[in-house]
Amino acid sequence: MTNMIDLNEQNLALLPADIELPNYDRSKVKAGIVHIGVGGFHRAHQAMYVDQLLKTPGNEQWGICGVGLLEANEGLRDVMKKQDCLYSLIVRHPNGKVENKVIGSMIDFLYAPENKQAVIDKLAHSDTKVVSLTITEGGYNFNPATGEFDLTNEEILHDINNPSDPKTTFGYLTAALKARKEAGMPAFTVQSCDNIQHNGVMTKKMLLAFIDQCDVELSAWVAQNAAFPNGMVDRITPVTTPADIAHLNDLGINDEWPITCEAFTQWVIEDDFCQGRPNWDQAGAQFVTDVTPFEKMKIRLLNAGHSVLGLLGSIHGFATIDESVSDPLFAKFLRTFMDKEVTPLLDNLDGIDLTEYKDTLIERFANPNIKDSLARICLESSAKLPKFLIATVTENLEKQDGQIELATLVLATWCLYSDKQVDQNGNALEISDQMAELLHSTAAQTATDKLAFLGLTDLFGDLRDNDVFTQVYERAIDSLYQDNLNIMALMQDTLALEKEVV
Ligand code: CS2
């Protein structure tokens, strides 16, 4: 298309009338929030809430400065620079309705590898009141089985020994907090927006464990002065595809990195901030005193549900979540997993109808306009499954009548997936996991030791020693490793084994 308009500050007024624009003066916005990890999710979620808020005068102190710590963020830096940190958010409803917005809440972006000190200075700046994080489940550097900080990680060791040349989030936060303490300034709130239960508590524990290695006095000061609210975040945000860029091109806009997301969005936050906070509730978020029941419900149903479809669907040869859940057997398997293996573990939630929540989840997964790839869902499974799924199996094993058949089939499927790395038709799977090599070499021993995969005790804890579990797991492995695997037949058989809940 000719006459396409490049997305940037100067061109905002030239964009087509049906695009929602940041109708506030961005030059007046200050960065009260520094956000580490500017992935698609942050751009579809928190940055959208802030954008919404900035539309009401009086909130100018709550703009966002994005930070990319990874060398992989170089491309994002270039686009952010070119586009004055503006990007389009394409919101796709299940009925085909599409809303196109330009989000203006990010006012600056720092690419850490090119200037580490600039990032430390920004974090230490007096305007910075909240440092928010989407660094993925793996970024918190805890051992999934023990929940303790992993001091064997090489980058962490590097940061402990080189405080002025950090690589990890912990190194940066520590350098900035130290500078603030020395300058007699207040600390900041560290707000995790990742899918970890008690993400604030976890962030605090990990950060203090790191600082303890460097400066015990600083650690005590941070424990006293910083705040770490827990929160539950939710919005399905698939990976941006060329089709999303083409969609905007068709509207006459040249945006090199738009974000697509579903219409649903939720953010439940514990109101625990040490230096003030944006009134996110005015943009649709919810403040609560205890987020525990919300986060458990979301992680154990939505995120685990994704993993169930992700692993089984990958072996079947499906490519996306909507494709998987539109198969009636997959939908039944998912719903039975939710109803019989997860729901009995969830606390009562005042004002939330769990049946309705699960119905909505299935509808969201089925949204045909959100092509959420199974490759994205299965990405970094080793950091996700211990919290999303293995915790459910462990809790069920502790209960007298807990059911584990379906989740165990998924775990055994993860073994097959890591071992063979192909679907049941022999097509290669795209696997990306920090632990990929170890997962593969361990799973590859299954032929001689059916329980070999469970030897990864950092992930599975002591499940290998639990006879009730290993019996179910071994049966699943036997069926999965048969010639001419038919995963659907196996899912059907497994469903038949699930007992009726009384
Ligand atoms: C997904 C999440 O990464 C995953 O496995 O389950 O990214 C999920 O889409 C979001 O948490 C939705 O809020």
The average pLDDT score comes to 96
Number of helices: 20
Strand percentage, roughly?
A: 5-15%
Task: Give the C-alpha Rg.
Answer: 23 Å
Structural class: alpha/beta
How is the biggest beta sheet arranged?
A: 5 strands, parallel
Helix coverage percent of residues?
Answer: 40-55%
- Total number of beta strands: 13
Bound molecules: D-mannonic acid
C-alpha geometry: globular
Q: In which order are the strands of the major sheet placed? A: 6-3-2-7-8
The low-confidence runs, each spanning 5 or more residues with pLDDT under 50, are: none
Give the CA-CA distance, first to last residue.
62 Å
What keywords describe this structure?
502 residues; alpha/beta; 5-stranded parallel β-sheet; 3-stranded mixed β-sheet; 20 helices; 13 strands; globular; binds D-mannonic acid
